[in-house]
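To the team - 6-O-phosphono-beta-D-fructofuranose complex, inputs and output below.
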Amino acid sequence: MRFLLRLLGAMWIATLAVTIGFAWLELQEERRELVADLERRAALAADAVREPAERLVGRGARTGYERLLARFARADRAIAIYDDLGGLLAASADVRADLGVISPLVSEALRGTAARTMRVVLGRATWVHVVPLVWEDRSVGAAAVLLDARHLETREWSLWRRTAVRLGVLGLLLTGITFLVVRWSVTQPIARMAAWTRQIKTGKEVAPPPTADASLFGPLAQEVDSLARSLARARIAAEHEARLRLAGESVWTEERLKQFVRVRFDDRPIFVVSNREPVSHMREGRAVRSVRPASGLVTALEPVMLACGGVWVAHGSGGADRDVGARIGLPEGDPQYTLRRVWLDAAEESGYYYGFANEGLWPLCHIVHERPQFRAEDWGHYCAVNEKFARTLLEEMESTPAPILLVQDYHFALLPQMVKRARPDARVALFWHIPWPNFEAFRICPWQHEILLGMLGADLVGFQTQFHCNNFLETVERTIEGRVDWDRFAVVRGDHTAHVLPLPISVAPEFDAPGNGPDRTRLLADLGAEVEFLGIGVDRVDYTKGLPERFRAIRRFFERWPEYRRRVVFVQLASPSRSRIPRYQALLHETEETVRQVNEALAERGWKPVVYHQRHHEHAEIQPWYLHADFCMVTSLHDGMNLVAKEFVVTQQQGDGVLILSRFAGAANDLRDALLVNPYDIDDVAGAVHRAVTMERDERRRRMRRMVSQVQEHSVYRWAAMLLAELDRMPLGVSLARE
Ligand code: F6P
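Output:
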């Protein structure tokens, strides 16, 4: 209220000053015009009176004055005639009694100059104009014209009255409008925000109110929002901890990981390096949009960074990244860690990322019968980009003693050795997210020695499965000099030991997208079909994911069990990936073509078996599909882990969806309650779809519950804790001799 009064007071004072100021100026202007009019009229009258008056006074006439007065005087105009000594010869009767006030003007006229001014005569404003009377070249007297000027005052008063009314109306309008604006834009939003924070305090999960005016409340709302989110996160973590304590389980949570890092590493920041950045910025018209890339690596690492804080070094690949900055706090609005972007030019990106990493190492490590392409210039770029990232990391780690570095994936095979040489005190882990092939497959790589030596620069090399660890150690044993210690699962070279460990990666125990998506009825209605069963697939369009094979298996399912036509629909969310590579372009085409053929063969009025959405999907968009699906298909031909399978499971905490999972995905080791399939065997996959839609509810529930427990107990927090614990155990101060 006090704010409103202050605001109104200030506005009133400003309005008063401006209105009065303008009224005064208007008055002056009008007065000038009225006086000019009086002056003109008085001068004309004086001119008219002068000649007959000069004749009478000059000749010394005793009579004739009454006629002159009768001729020129009017109700609003009085006349007075004086002799050369200023004696009054004649005057209109109505002013005669108070002519003393004009004597100074008469004297001036007798001295030869006309005089004019405003005077009060008989209590009335009067314009007086006195002219000299000259007869035969000598001054013989003066004639005065007195004009009634009372209308000047009348006009003045009416102007002030008008001004007062104007002021009153303006004041009322201003008060009303200000009151409404303050109520809508200030009082109500603040009241809503207060109600929201009150609800949050009581532990309810409520969406923040819409921000009324971003320019006014944006920063405040953002701060309150981020505070509320931190609070909510802390509360969830605390509740989780409490639940776990009650259940006596030993599950890793975000909070527990935080505490672990605090105790073991004295809160030192953690450094992560990956090719893919957790958030890309894209330009959309004039606006800049944050996009979370379709990447299992990001899905896994982001919760760890949110828990531990630190610096994540990655390739700034978004179109608007440079406009946003090379070093930014994430999540935007509630920063918990720093993203440091590394810029690559087109040649570097093409040689290192598209070329060596994705046309060379990717098909080399995935057994999908795709021939790797090895080009010397790509290798040159791969080495140079690894150097570039190493330099950036060293710069970031400069002031951190014994830094912890988690290197991610096949893009940075050389980086562990580069960093370790410059910072022997660093504890370096390399985690290889994709499979490691057997020795026979790997040895076709022309730079196999350099790759292995680069990787072995790490203190710890992690793979998704024991099988990949075995393949790696065998490759090392048969390729380079050094001792493979099979008992300790380590490679000893000089005074440096690299430990090799299976560390199956996972996801956070809760799917983090806000759960306000459409419900099942709405999802199905949007598909335009009255189906009973919803199947879902979420993949990058990559030849390792087995998409065309999956659609062919779905076709086989409907052919073998036609009674399920119109009752089952399969929705594929497909995110285009690496589409500059010709093989990926061909795959996009092949995938679309396969969907087209399946639908053409089977579709009936109002129903088609496969709904294919090919575009980037945000996390929040995917969640409702996971939540309401009756079955999810992860049928990769080969996959390091595949986190879509685990995301589906954690989203189905209360559900009974069926997971159909490729035996050749690392996730198959962890999720034994999935329906495991050979993705190359179309009948096998079709049979699994049939099993999914015919399975008893109890069995579906039991299977899903076991898988949920598995993922929650082996979440990404546990993965990070195991990795960090292993690193912590490594002896320090190891120097690497130049190879
Ligand atoms: O599986 C390997 C991997 O690097 C993942 O970490 C990630 O999910 C995927 O490939 C993404 O590929 P890209 O970063 O090339 O789009």
